[in-house]
Structure formats: structure tokens, C-alpha cells
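[agent] plan:
  1. take the single chain provided in the ticket
  2. run structure prediction with default settings
  3. attach C-alpha cells to the ticket
  4. add a short note for the reviewer (M.T.)
[agent] executing step 1
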Amino acid sequence: MTSTMHDPGVDVSDSRLDRIARWWSVVGVLAQLELRQRLRTTRWKTTLGIALFVLAVAVFGSMYFAMVSGGASYRDWARNLYVIVMAVELFFGIILAPTLTATAINGDRKDATLAVVQATPISNWQLTLGKLAGNWVSCLAMIVIAAPFLVWGIIEAPYGIGTGLLGVVVLCLLFACYGGIGLGFSALTARPAGSAVLTQATVFFLILGLPALFGLLYPTTSQDHPVVRGKFSYPALSVAPGASSAEEPVCRDVEQNETFHHTERIWWLLAPNPFLLLPDVVAGHDDPGPDNGWVTGHRPPDRTIVAPIAGLLSSARSGPYLGAPRCHELVTGYRTYETSGRSFYQAQNAHAESHVGDSWPLGLLANFVFGGIGVVLAARRLRVPARKLPKGVRIA
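[agent] step 2 finished; step 3 output follows
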């Protein structure tokens, strides 16, 4: 019998780290191959040029219409510049990110280059992650060309530098999720055109289909609840000589059943929507400033356009505010419009906005799930030797 002796000078953890580093270095090489294919094509450069042109038109066009045609100040427009740039970047990302990876695998099969790569000593996971990383970095080129506008928007926005950068990071992660979806369909289908259509359909289902499903299920969330509401009764006008014809109404608290919609049961259908997710990242830090409430006697700065968008998602997650304004919460002086104590409507608004800034992690996680499913399917399809291929798919 022979015994294996370990060299005391060899660190097992170091060798394990070396294997991990070599494994990821192969992924990096495959990602570089994908990037070089993009750089050699003039179509990709043309696409980036068009994206930069559209972004510049959106920025300076909005400035013209806001300041010249709309009469707004530079401060009012600049507070929303970050949102304008992010919206344009998201629009192009939705189109490009899934489209690039939708042809990454079946396109190489069609060109008879995939089998050459699979013949090398690399694993299916290395090939999958390499293609995903390469196409993801290609999409991040749109962030690079928009960097001057993003820096400008972050400086002018009221969210703060950290929050503005967080929004950019979340946008980049969404690109990776959409790329994973496209990679999965590219491995499942034989034709690049088919995988591109299926990928775009899935992405647009997240953007339009889930909100439409939310709207269809909205009537099913209705439920009656007893509430006490203050109601005014108006005395009959007196016709006696010298009687006042403008008597103040009398308020009484009346209990009645009212219908509320419990949207908190289906709000998660809206969470993966990127046009609701990204505003929720920054809306929690949308502070109009210390002048809010007209304390100093001049008009306070308005909140940015992401505030009402994030408020819609928060309101759906919070559900209905089960209550109604009572007499002591309504106007105490019928003609002076004075209020007593905390207004019912203030409490209602606070309830509706209680989840502003809290929902985007769940929405991002949902997108990660969709993208992760696509990556797992692609890795399984790229196993060598292939156990079973779908109809119309060839090895080379």
C-alpha cells in the first residue's frame, strides 16, 4: 500500500483560488471574443451613434420646450435631467440587450463556429457566462456614451450622488437580466429570428403584459368595509322676515359600507416593470428642500417626475386606506376652511406613499429570476456531449 503525503509547503486554499481564477479567466477570454465580433461590425458602431444622437436630441429638445416654450426655469428642468437620460437609456437597453444575446448561440450554430469552441476544453457554464458577459459589456457601451449627460443629471438632481449612481447600477443589472432571457431563447430555438421575437415578446410582457394582467385582476380585489364618514346636512332656507338665508351646514358622523380595492394582493405584478422599478430607486430621496410648505414665503421647488410614478407603485403595494374623513377632520369653519388636528387626507397620502423606495429590490429580484432561468437553460443546451437536440438544431 502507498500513502499520499501532502507537501507542507503547499497551501490547499491557494491552489483552490488558482483553479477559480483560471476558470474565470476562460470566461474572460470568451467574453473578449464576443466583444471583438461586435467591434468588427460597423452596424454596432452605427447603433451607438444613433443612440447618442437620440439622447442629445431628447436632452436639448426637452430643455428648449421647457425653458423657451414652457417658460420654466433652468432649475425646474435640470432637476428632471437625470430622469430624462435614464428613460432614454432604458428604452435603448430594452431593445438592444435582449436582441444581442438572442442570436448569440443559434447564430454561431448557423455560422458553424459554435462546435469549434465547444471542441476546446471548456465547460458549458464557461461558454454561457462568457457569451452573457460579452454581450452585457456591449450594452454597457450605451452607458459609457451617455456618461457626460449622466454626470450632468446626477449633479443637478436632488437625489444625491450615491442614489444617482445606484440608479445607474440597477439599470446595468437590468441589462444583464434581459441578456439572460435572450440567451435562453437563443439556446432553445434553431433560428435567430425566432429567438429574437420570443425574447422581445417576453421582455414586453414584463413591461406591458403584467400591468395589463394587473388591470384585469383589479375588479377582483374589491371588498366592502364599514367606515364612519362625516356628512353635511343643509338646513332648509327660512323665509321669515330677518332670517339668514346662508345658514351653515351641520356635520354628522354616519357609518356606512364602502367598497375598497385591495391592490396589495396583486401589486407584485407591477414590481418587475422597469419603468416603475427605476423611479422607485431614487424617489425615496426626492426631497423638494427646506422650503417645502411655503414656509419662507416663496414657491418651493417641485418634486421630480419620478415622484408620482413611484407613488403609483407604492399605492398599489400599500392597498386602500380603510377609513373616511370624520367631522372633526373636515373643515371646522365652513367659510374659513380651517382644519383641526391632523388631516385625514394627510394620513391617507402618508399611507399611500409608505412604500416609496422599498419595492425596487423585489422587482430587481424578479428580473434576476427571469434572467437566471434563461442562463440555466442555455447552459443545459450547451452541454457536451449533447443528449438531445430540438428539431432543426445541428451540432455545428
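[agent] step 4 note for reviewer: The chain is about 60% helix and 5% strand.
[agent] ticket updated
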